[in-house]
């Protein structure tokens, strides 16, 4: 829509342009034409980004919502408008409440643990010790490895027959017979959360580490002079000053973890049954196992709305606290 | 600046054009001259691609001017690919798939008689041609078939002092207990998502159960099916299967059988080529009819895959498709595919060409004559199959069999 605006502005009489503020006042009064061009200048810089956003963000969203309102046959053929039928079908699915609840546990659990562990890791990486550079590099490795690969590796490590986890636990004497970790929903879900934490750690730790780097040394010095202990310093200085980094880390993690597909898909495929599905894998199953593309699109819209809501609420809360604090 | 605005408009126009042509349906690229067709083939194993490459080379040499563009797709991605193709109007001219009836229902594919010569049409074995019909008209072209029989490891049976393979369910259970006592895994029961529908159907059909009743109505929750799941649940709870059948895929137990770790499984005709020969050529195993509840009648699960041809450009592609399909169904070409992949024939001529091949295939071919098939002629089957794959396994671990089957029945009765 913005683009249509652009074309009418260049072609049209340009009465609308009058009101727009010109760039910082220059010495000589520019001609009418020049002023018009000047007013359009920001578009030159915004244009490519706008097109990109339109093409890769807005359009798919529109298409997604449209699909969720269509009656689509199991072959993929669109048979016409379905109104709210897809949504009605979706909310009537007996497995949906469990899946949503599990998604909540998944997101809250993974993000909380990730951030807690990352805080400690970042603190460690921020202190000086021999080999620090090596450790920093080592932390990047799980980040660089593909998530799918990591998840597959873990699936094999947890395998009932060949898995190294069972082997080790049996050799140590903790287990006396192998456990089929990924076959029991609760255990499988716990393991998958652990893997999700594992792959989220590097990014989070580095965001927090960079936050730690921005805290001036003088503040710590002052605290020390005032006689604050380690715990007090951490709680009253480090954590509050880390808030911007923590916020970034939390939001990005919430979005990533919520949308996380490969870990669950590679390790359990959401099974047995739907016992380890989150809304993201459930959405996929609706489309390709249940053959209900429209219903799956409805799930996608619900997912989208959920994540938007979570982020907005989070921002609200954080900003509110900033104002009062 | 102006150029930039033009660039923006062009970008948006392109985006709109892309979205627009998604709905066109008949604008599939490349095939406008009617002599170039696209063929999406399923990947059965690593030999699939070379086979088609060679066949297409031979076809193009024999039919100058015609071209076939090949895409080989892994079975895992097939469903999502096909759906995307149809939804965006980019369906291939020829597709190798395991379903056809919902395409026929949506009027997307040609009838069989429109795309192969009468000679080829008559060459299909009636058993398979019947299964390729939608509402009495043949749409699917039978492509390959497979049958299931009972495989048992003779060494493990010897160790457990069992002299012959079980024929009834009671014997299966009894032998399983002996094998367990001897220290091996008795029965491989793959009820994980990969092929759970096949495994369940094998047991159910040998108890008089199945997917539909006599009139063709869905009857997934019939008592015989509940009884079947109760039996399998009993075996599982008694530890007579590999651990956690609900989370075990078919290829896992096939592999373990090939490694000599499992005493007995419901195997498939491609076991030897696909699993046993690649792991242990000297595995000492036997093949027997699938055990049934009463031990007297033994049914076999037949499986067939199809070729289908999509309607495009008002039938402009039909002639090229016809030529290509007739070329594939020539005796030498079709039989070569079967022997390459280790499947059974769906045509008389290729079957005759293969009949010289080994005693291994004979029991499968014999069993096929009375085989039962999944109701692939029902367009709703794909949704039912999806539900079965996801749910049926839970019936041997946690959920009550009756409840699981009722949920699947509900899915079946929903409109596709």
Please provide a brief summary of the model.
The complex is a heterodimer of chains A (325) and B (416). Chain A has helices spanning 2-11, 32-68, 85-92, 96-126, 132-144, 147-157, 164-172, 185-213, 217-225, 230-241, 243-258, 262-267, 279-288, 293-324; strands at residues 70-72, 78-81.
User: Architecture of the largest domain in chain B, CATH level 2?
Assistant: 3-Layer(aba) Sandwich
Query: Major sheet of chain A: order of its strands?
Result: 1-2
CATH superfamily of the largest domain in chain B: Periplasmic binding protein-like II
Principal-axes shape call of chain B: globular
Structural notes for this entry:
The complex is a heterodimer of chains A (325) and B (416). Chain A is mostly helical. Chain A has 14 helices and two strands, in the order H-H-E-E-H-H-H-H-H-H-H-H-H-H-H-H. Chain A has helices spanning 2-11, 32-68, 85-92, 96-126, 132-144, 147-157, 164-172, 185-213, 217-225, 230-241, 243-258, 262-267, 279-288, 293-324, and strands at residues 70-72, 78-81. Chain A has a two-stranded antiparallel sheet with strand order 1-2. In chain A, a hairpin with a 5-residue loop joins strand 1 and strand 2. Chain B has 416 residues and is an alpha/beta fold. Chain B folds into two domains: 30-145 and 303-373, Periplasmic binding protein-like II (D-Maltodextrin-Binding Protein, domain 2), CATH 3.40.190; 146-302 and 376-413, Periplasmic binding protein-like II (D-Maltodextrin-Binding Protein, domain 2, 3-Layer(aba) Sandwich). Chain B has helices spanning 2-24, 48-62, 75-87, 101-105, 112-115, 118-123, 126-130, 154-159, 169-182, 196-205, 223-237, 250-258, 271-279, 318-328, 331-341, 348-354, 362-368, 381-391, 394-397, 401-413; strands spanning 36-43, 67-74, 94-97, 133-134, 137-138, 141-153, 185-188, 262-268, 285-288, 301-309, 372-373. The longest helix of chain B has 23 residues, at 2-24. Chain B is globular. The interface between A and B is large, with 47 and 50 residues.
């Amino acid at each position: 829509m913005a683009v249509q605006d652009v074309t009418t502005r260049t072609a049209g009489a340009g009465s609308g342009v009058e009101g727009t503020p010109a760039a910082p006042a220059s010495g000589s009064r520019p001609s009418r034409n020049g002023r018009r061009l000047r007013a359009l200048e920001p578009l030159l810089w915004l244009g490519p980004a706008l097109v990109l956003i339109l093409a890769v963000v807005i359009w798919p969203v529109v298409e997604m919502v449209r699909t969720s309102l269509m009656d689509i046959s199991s072959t993929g053929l669109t048979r016409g408008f379905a109104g709210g039928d897809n949504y009605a079908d979706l909310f009537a699915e007996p497995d949906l409440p469990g899946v949503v609840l599990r998604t909540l546990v998944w997101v809250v659990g993974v993000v909380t643990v990730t951030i807690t562990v990352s805080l400690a890791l970042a603190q460690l990486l921020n202190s000086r010790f021999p080999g620090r550079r090596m450790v920093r590099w080592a932390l990047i490795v799980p980040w660089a490895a593909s998530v799918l690969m990591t998840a597959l590796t873990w699936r094999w490590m947890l395998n009932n027959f060949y898995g190294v986890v069972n082997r080790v636990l049996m050799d140590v004497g903790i287990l006396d017979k192998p456990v089929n970790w990924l076959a029991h929903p609760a255990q499988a879900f716990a393991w998958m959360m652990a893997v999700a934490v594992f792959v989220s750690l590097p990014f989070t730790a580095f965001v927090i580490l960079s936050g730690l780097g921005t805290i001036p040394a003088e503040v710590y010095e002052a605290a020390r002079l005032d006689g604050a202990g380690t715990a007090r310093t951490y709680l009253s200085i480090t954590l509050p000053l880390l808030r911007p980094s923590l916020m970034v880390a939390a939001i990005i993690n919430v979005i990533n973890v919520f949308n996380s597909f490969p870990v669950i898909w590679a390790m359990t495929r959401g099974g047995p049954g739907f016992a380890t599905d989150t809304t993201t894998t459930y959405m996929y199953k609706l489309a390709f196992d249940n053959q209900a593309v429209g219903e799956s699109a409805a799930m996608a819209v619900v997912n989208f709305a959920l994540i938007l809501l979570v982020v907005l609420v989070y921002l609200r809360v954080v900003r509110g606290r900033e104002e009062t604090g | 600046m102006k150029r930039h605005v033009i660039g923006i408009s062009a970008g948006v126009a392109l985006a709109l054009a892309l979205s627009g042509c998604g709905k066109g349906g008949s604008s599939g690229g490349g095939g406008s001259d009617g002599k170039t067709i696209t063929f999406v083939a399923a990947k059965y194993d690593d030999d699939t691609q070379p086979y088609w490459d060679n066949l297409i080379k031979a076809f193009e040499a024999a039919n100058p001017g015609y071209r076939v563009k090949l895409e080989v797709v892994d079975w895992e991605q097939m469903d999502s690919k096909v759906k995307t193709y149809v939804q965006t109007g980019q369906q291939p001219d020829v597709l190798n798939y395991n379903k056809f009836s919902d395409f026929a229902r949506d009027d997307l594919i040609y009838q069989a008689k429109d795309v192969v010569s009468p000679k080829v049409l008559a060459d299909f074995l009636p058993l398979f041609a019947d299964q390729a019909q939608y509402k009495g008209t043949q749409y699917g072209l039978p492509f390959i078939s497979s049958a299931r029989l009972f495989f048992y490891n003779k060494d493990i049976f010897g160790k457990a002092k069992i002299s012959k393979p079980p024929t009834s369910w009671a014997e299966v259970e009894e032998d399983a207990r002996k094998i367990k006592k001897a220290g091996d895994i008795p029965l491989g029961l793959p009820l994980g998502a990969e092929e759970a529908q096949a495994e369940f159907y094998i047991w159910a059909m040998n108890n008089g159960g199945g997917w539909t009743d006599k009139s063709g109505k869905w009857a997934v929750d019939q008592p015989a099916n509940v009884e079947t799941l109760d039996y399998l649940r009993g075996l599982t709870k008694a530890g007579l299967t590999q651990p956690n059948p609900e989370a075990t895929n078919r290829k896992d137990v096939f592999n373990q059988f090939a490694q000599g770790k499992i005493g007995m499984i419901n195997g498939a005709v491609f076991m030897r080529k696909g699993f046993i020969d690649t792991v242990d050529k000297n595995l000492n195993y036997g093949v027997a009819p699938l055990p049934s509840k009463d031990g007297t009648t033994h049914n076999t699960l037949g499986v067939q895959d199809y070729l289908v041809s999509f309607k495009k450009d008002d039938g402009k592609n039909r002639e090229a498709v016809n030529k290509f399909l007739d070329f594939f169904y020539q005796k030498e070409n079709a039989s070569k595919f079967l022997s390459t992949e280790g499947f059974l024939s769906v045509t008389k001529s290729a079957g005759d060409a293969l009949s010289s091949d080994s005693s291994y295939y004979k029991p499968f071919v014999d069993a096929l004559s009375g085989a039962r098939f999944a109701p692939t002629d029902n367009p709703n089957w794909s949704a039912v199959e999806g539900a079965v794959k996801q749910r049926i396994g839970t019936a041997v671990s946690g959920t009550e069999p009756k409840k699981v089957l009722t949920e699947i029945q509900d899915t079946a009765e929903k409109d596709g």
